[in-house]
Request: fold
Amino acid sequence: MSRKVREIKKTFKIFCEGDTEYLYMEGMRRACRLSISLKMVNMEGGGYSSFLDDLRKDGNANCLAKFIIIDGDRAVKEYGERENLRKLLEYCKIQNASGRTPHILIINYPDFEYIGCLHTPKYKGQNVEQYIIKEMGYKDIGAFKSDKCIYKTLNTKGNSCDIMQEALRKRDCFVRNTFRIHTNRFEIKVSTGYDWEKLECRGSNLDELFFLLRAFS
Reply:
């Protein structure tokens, strides 16, 4: 009798900064039963270069693609971070051009708190902190950032990630990736483009993550 070959399932890896993004992705992973692996990157003292260091050390075995989710405000506010972001972008472009495991850079500008507001249909560009407190019911911005049920919170009572994605598709953003996918071969080809003049455009390409998760679910 021939031995049954165990099928090894490929997964997505998500590298993210901060508790909020991690808690959101973990909530989504559990709620939707997604095959993703999460890693929170410690940016203390390293900024965007911390992501580059972690990516260079990370293995590619059984990995379908890597998402790198960061806030863009550091590149505007902190000295040297624009250059570190450029290096991170170029590293991802090189990985994608090589045909190895795709590296998909996602930039939220100015930050994930803004993206959180976009989950709600009433948000029309108001001050983010005031909106989170007055309209979303948090006592302060810190409570929002540390909410362990943030994914569930942003996807209930008529709010949803679908609303957020629709809002993002209507906006310009700094980074856009284009994809050629073959789901039956578990293959993703990525081309990364970016425009420095759009660095401070409020928005994100986070909708690309949802697009690929749906394609391979």
About this structure: The chain has a mean pLDDT of 93. Residues 75 and 82 are 4 Å apart (CA to CA).
